[in-house]
Design goal:
oxidoreductase, Sc_DH/Rdtase_CS, alpha/beta, NAD(P)-bd_dom_sf, about 350 residues, seven-stranded parallel beta sheet, 9 helices, two-stranded antiparallel sheet, globular, disordered N terminus, Rossmann fold, oxidoreductase activity, 2 domains
Length: about 350
């Protein structure tokens, strides 16, 4: 089993799991001088259960991971990462063929047991059935990865059809809601340590000009806020929650979206100049995600060096708006006039 912060098959040196991926163990600092890693505390939110959570994330044998979107991409990467650690798997995807291949690979990677569940996560009845089947087959679920999603880029706001909008929100937002809603009660009931990972996107935080990804970004923002709010409902139960913000990953999310999208809409043009084959491998992304979850990181970025710059710009705009609003309120300009 890989130690926290190390990546199987990678030449990258080991570093504390709480540090970024540019961490230099010899210099004990990040090679990126602008990085905040040395000054950021990634302590778990509830210290008294920190040991339980750490144990749950380092001892995977005898545990079960439930992963949606497991037929390809990051979902398959997560399945193989859990399999290498000895966890049993319940794999969910809309593609029967993709699930069959993931099952074969996961068993070869070391998973003691794998069940597959063909499911459209945008449909509550199908999600509920898959969760019920998985619980019946495995007894308990300890790790949930609400990862299923479809891409929707290159379609201007005024060109997207209502059917397309319902589709992308159904898969990306409702799919995550339904998945967690169907399994969290049983996780709270058995009371054992576990973790929930919700896959959002860096698009949830960055409105990239010219990409025409507003609806996609909105679906992923919803996933992020759901996960953050979920912590209130979990309380001090030994269940961690992490949101993942992938950057460019080498997946087939674009081609899958083209195949699955509803008829009658505008063909997605994608993002000009964006080549996903040049992105991070799904296996690498999955290892980053598990290392982050193991460290109790609430917000996990596959491309932190890019995300940080954009967030500084975004929050500068927000702070500017707050300052302007304070000035407006102080001047009395908000008074209602007859």
């Amino acid at each position: 089993m890989a130690a926290p912060g190390s990546i199987p098959g990678s030449s990258r040196p080991s570093r504390p799991a709480s540090m970024c991926w540019n961490w230099d163990p010899k210099q004990e600092q990040c090679s990126n001088s602008a990085c905040l890693a040395p000054r950021i505390s990634l302590a778990l939110p509830f210290p008294r259960i920190a040991a339980e959570l750490e144990s749950s994330m380092t001892d995977y044998q005898g545990k079960v991971a439930y992963i949606t979107g497991a037929g390809s991409g990051i979902g398959r990467g997560l399945a193989l990462a859990y399999a290498r650690r000895g966890a049993a798997l319940a794999l969910v995807d809309v593609s029967k063929e993709g699930l069959a291949e993931s099952e074969h690979l996961a068993l070869a990677a070391g998973a003691p047991k794998v069940t597959t569940h063909v499911t459209d996560v945008s449909q509550w009845d199908q999600v509920e059935r898959a969760s019920t089947e998985a619980l019946a087959a495995h007894g308990e679920i300890h790790f949930v990865c609400a990862n299923a999603g479809v891409g929707f880029a290159g379609v201007p706001f005024t060109k997207a059809t209502p059917k397309e909008i319902q589709w992308v929100f159904g898969v990306n937002s409702l799919g995550a809601f339904y998945t967690v809603r169907s399994l969290l009660p049983s996780m709270l009931a058995h009371g054992k340590p576990g973790h929930i990972v919700c896959t959002a996107s860096v698009a949830a935080l960055i409105a990239a000009p010219g990409w025409h990804i507003g609806f996609y970004a909105a679906t992923k923002s919803a996933v992020s806020m759901m996960a953050q709010s979920m912590r209130d409902d979990i309380g001090d139960a030994p269940i961690g929650v992490s949101v993942v913000y992938p950057g460019l990953i080498d997946t087939n999310i674009g081609s899958n979206a083209a195949r699955l999208r509803p008829d009658g809409g505008v063909k997605s043009q994608g993002v000009s100049g964006l080549d996903t084959t040049q992105g991070l491998s799904p296996d690498r992304a999955a290892e980053i995600i598990l290392a982050g979850a193991q460290a109790g990181v609430r917000h996990i970025f596959t491309h932190p060096e890019l995300s940080r710059e954009e967030q500084e710009r975004r929050h500068a705009e927000i702070l500017e708006g707050i300052a302007a609003s304070i000035s407006i309120n102080a001047s009395g300009r908000t008074e209602t006039r007859a």
